[in-house]
């Protein structure tokens, strides 16, 4: 098991983005990483200063189920003024990404605007992110859970969409991409039915750099290319 905060007031963003959040009591060095794993643990024991817990500055982009971090690293490069965060439940992958981020920070003075965290987003998403705080949410090639009895476990369903809508800013965007046609149809149905989202047209996405990235940045998207399979994406705006 791994710890989780009681609510966003307990999250110290300075340990994830030390270049952007200055902790006067303890400045985190580039050699330190905190990923909420056994190797790089985090404790959420007390309420954190408002300068550090997201009340003054927020995480902008969240990649839910970030895998090996391909999209996360590309978001950091393409949007250098935004703070991007990857969420992943598999501890070894989180350690791998965290160590890679640390190497870039130490050796090349890069990747200060990205971080990774181990958590179960289906259980603890709103314990990290405040209302109307996130600009973009990404769901890349999520588990399709093919059996009907497991549809409730799909990361995009009506209940979870309400949580995502709570965290997204008005005008913020939700991106979902898959190589499974049936799952894409599910995404379209559930998002279209939700009153707080509006599905965007291809014309509305022509200048969206993030939309282009979801097709070719992640390791999973490249795997789909190697198998010569199709990709299906939907983008919706928080209204």
- How far apart the termini lie comes to 36 Å
> What series of H and E elements makes up the topology?
EHEHEHEHEHEHHE
At the third CATH level, what is the topology name?
Rossmann fold
Q: What average pLDDT do the residues reach?
A: 96
Shape designation: globular
CATH class, please?
Alpha Beta
Helix/strand-derived class?
alpha/beta
> Hey, roughly how much beta strand do the residues contain?
15-25%
Give a quick account of the main beta sheet: strands, pairing sense, barrel closure: 7 strands, mixed
Major β-sheet strand ordering = 3-2-1-4-5-7-6
CATH architecture: 3-Layer(aba) Sandwich
Number of strands: 7
Radius of gyration: 17 Å
The H-level CATH homologous superfamily, spelled out, is: Vaccinia Virus protein VP39
| Count of separate structural domains | 1
**What share of the residues lie within helices?**
25-40%
Per DSSP, the total helix count is: 7
> Which regions are unreliable across 5 or more consecutive residues at pLDDT < 50?
none
Function: Catalyzes the formation of N(7)-methylguanine at position 46 (m7G46) in tRNA.
Pathway: tRNA modification; N(7)-methylguanine-tRNA biosynthesis
Enzyme class: transferase
Catalytic activity: guanosine(46) in tRNA + S-adenosyl-L-methionine = N(7)-methylguanosine(46) in tRNA + S-adenosyl-L-homocysteine
